[in-house]
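Fill in residues.
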């Protein structure tokens, strides 16, 4: 179990009342793995945007400044980690970079894990003005960064069509500041598979790994948030990039498999459904407690020679 005195994470990302994305996807696994989690929500919605409708609020820089000021007035910026996910406002994102700098005044060893959520499969789902804020202000402060393939291309300026180009993109991200770069998913795997790639630089020495796993034929919401939270936790617990990658993927795959089986069972029992409903596709996190705490490694990572 992680040490309660050293594992306190400020998690800044989206949240929903119903279901599991953003902070709802990240907090429970982090808590199971020994982290005290303090969430700040960048948006607060009734449910994720994959439903036919949603209601709620988008927070801006003033709201996050107010919340953080309340913590400071009570002497509470006592965090070992900060984790960021979806943020929809550039002013909010700029304020996050200021918070990271302030937290490092209190703890120079603060670990900042950034999931630069901007888009996927060639399509942005945030405003374009967030890209330069991530690239120039936020990513340079991060210790760990977990973009998908599209986000890595945006941040590095490298088009990724091969493992060699992925390695180059990760190297460029290292040069910006992060010691650990993990491409959470790429289309570089064999048919029917995704490829995850990871790179870390320690004491001037770089180690790189790749891990292939099956691509499931349905879309899940909240998987990137789950991936980043688990990676942060397992890196803290094991201090081993290869093992942390294997455990993270094992847990995510177990959660997705359980979720898909549940959705298929619901679909089978309701002939009126032409496809699984968004409700039935919500991540089965609580039901995956054992897998989160003790993942069974099925897919092994292999070293990439440099």
């Amino acid at each position: 179990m992680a040490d309660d005195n050293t594992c306190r994470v400020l998690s800044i990302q989206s949240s929903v009342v119903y279901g599991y994305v953003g902070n709802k996807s990240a907090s429970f696994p982090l808590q199971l793995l020994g982290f005290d989690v303090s969430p700040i929500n960048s948006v607060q919605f009734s449910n994720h945007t994959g439903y036919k409708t949603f209601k709620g609020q988008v927070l801006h820089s003033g709201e996050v400044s107010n919340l953080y000021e309340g913590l400071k007035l009570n002497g509470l910026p006592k965090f070992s980690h900060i984790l960021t996910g979806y943020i929809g406002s550039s002013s909010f994102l700029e304020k996050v970079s200021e918070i990271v700098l302030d937290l490092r005044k209190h703890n120079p060893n603060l670990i900042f894990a950034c999931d630069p959520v901007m888009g996927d499969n060639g399509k942005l789902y945030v405003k374009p003005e967030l890209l330069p804020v991530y690239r120039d202000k936020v990513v340079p402060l991060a210790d760990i960064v977990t973009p998908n393939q599209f986000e890595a291309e945006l941040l590095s300026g490298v088009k990724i069509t091969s493992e060699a180009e992925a390695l180059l993109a990760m190297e460029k991200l290292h040069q910006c500041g992060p010691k650990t770069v993990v491409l959470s998913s790429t289309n570089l795997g064999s048919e029917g598979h995704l490829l995850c790639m990871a790179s870390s630089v320690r004491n001037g020495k770089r180690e790189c790994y790749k891990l292939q796993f099956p691509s499931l034929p349905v879309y899940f919401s909240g998987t990137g948030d789950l991936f980043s939270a688990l990676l942060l936790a397992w890196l803290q617990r094991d201090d081993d990039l290869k093992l942390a990658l294997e455990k993270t993927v094992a847990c995510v795959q177990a959660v997705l498999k359980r979720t898909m089986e549940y959705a298929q069972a619901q679909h089978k029992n309701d002939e009126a459904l032409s496809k699984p409903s968004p409700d039935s596709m919500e991540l089965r996190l609580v039901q995956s407690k054992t897998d989160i705490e003790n993942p069974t490694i099925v897919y092994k990572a292999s070293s990439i020679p440099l």
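Residues 73 and 251 are 38 Å apart (CA to CA).
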